[in-house]
Amino acid sequence: MRVSTSRQETARQHDALDGLCVKVFEEKLSGSLAVDARPALAAAIDYLRPGDLLTVQEVDRLGRNLLEGLLVLNDLFSRGIAVKVLDGIAVGEHTERSLILDLALALAEDRRRDIVRKTRDGLAAARARGRTGGRPRVVDADKRRVILARHGEGESIRTIARATKVSVGTVHNVLAGHRGSSA
């Protein structure tokens, strides 16, 4: 089973797979990565023997990269390992490549590409409206003036950080930014 980030849950996949599988391999990594960058998938592939059946909830759990998915399937089928897909257009047991498996992998890659595009477009639209992502800034213009003034008066960076309730690194960044803008 696979989800793309550590914040995503695998409960739905556990519900589907736990009762069917002898061993379940779980990872929280992007499906667009190569097999060698996905330790749980690599371990699952190494664990399997001829005559075994690899079960996935959907074929895109093998990967959202068409080429990588095809390589995985070709490797498994050449070793006599079948693949069982529980959901999606490729539902069923497969012992060799088929148009439907190839199509399911192609659609998974296309969905991933669409998600990336929509995310990028959404961030660009937010930026155009003056909103940016990331953590909120802890240093506003007033705090920046205080940091620069105290530094100009000879106070240590650690003392300034304590007085302004920011980290030493933040004070360093403010001072570096000031030096960079006045250069």
What coarse outline follows from CA principal-axis ratios? elongated
String of helices and strands? EHEHEHEEHHHH
The structural class is mainly alpha
Continuous helix count: 7
Strand tally: 5
Biggest pleated sheet: 3 strands, mixed
The neighbouring-strand order within the major sheet is 3-4-5
Q: What share of residues is helical?
A: 40-55%
Chain-averaged pLDDT? 89
Tell me the distance between the termini.
53 Å
Low-pLDDT residue intervals, each spanning 5 or more residues: none
Radius of gyration: 25 Å
Share of residues in strands:
5-15%
Give a nutshell description of this structure.
This protein is mainly alpha-helical. Helices cover 51% and strands 8% of the residues.
Task: Explain what you see.
It contains seven helices and five strands, in the order βαβαβαββαααα. β1, α1 (11-17) and β2 form a beta-alpha-beta unit. It has helices at 11-17, 39-47, 66-78, 99-128, 141-152, 157-164, 168-181; strands at 2-3, 27-28, 53-56, 82-85, 92-94. It is mostly helical and 183 residues long. The strands form two sheets. The protein has a three-stranded mixed beta sheet with strand order 3-4-5, covered by helices on one side. α5 (141-152) packs across α7.
